Amino acid sequence: MGKINVFGSVEEISKLVKDTGRGFCLDFAHILAREKKVDYRKIALLFPQEKWHCHFSGIVYGDKGEMHHRSTKKEEWQKLLKNFPHGMKITIINESPTMLEDSIQGLEIYNSMH
User: Fold this and answer.
1) Where are the domains of the chain?
2) Which of 38, 18, 22 is nearest to 30 (CA)?
3) Long-range CB contacts (within 8 A, 24+) of 79-82
4) pTM
5) Which residue, among 70, 61, 59, has the nearest Cα to 97 in the 3D structure?
């Protein structure tokens, strides 16, 4: 999903989920690498399911998409958590090289928002 010319756009994944009835994983670092921004409204419309499984971390990307993960910045957590739909069951797996520290930071930000 993190490469521009590879199957895995949010539209393609949404159609696959609808066609197969299977679960999905939204990888926000890959979406950012592929689209250069995250359209949270579009994603919420494409994935109306009550349960989401997500991957999230900072990312370094180039012209062809994702290069590698990096530590997640506080501002990135804040933007993600602020834009998630409310009333859903969302699991977030942090994939950064400092995943424990980043996950703790994400939980602290989430708790301060609720």
Assistant:
1) 10-113
2) 38
3) 80/28, 80/38, 80/56, 81/106, 81/109, 81/110, 81/113, 82/113
4) 0.84
5) 70
CB atoms within 10 A of CB 20: 9
What element of type H or E holds 93?
Answer: strand 89-94
pLDDT in tens, 43-89: 999 999 999 999 999 888 777 777 888 999 999 999 999 999 988 99
Look at residues 1, 3, 22 and name the one whose alpha carbon lies nearest to residue 11.
1
How far is Cα 10 from Cα 94, in angstroms, rounded to an integer?
19
Contact by Cβ (8 Å): 102, 57: yes
The angle that helices 99-113 and 74-83 make with each other, rounded to 10 degrees, is 50
- Tell me the C-alpha distance between 41 and 10, whole Å: 12
Cβ–Cβ under 8 Å, residues 113 and 82 = yes
CA distance 20 to 34: 24
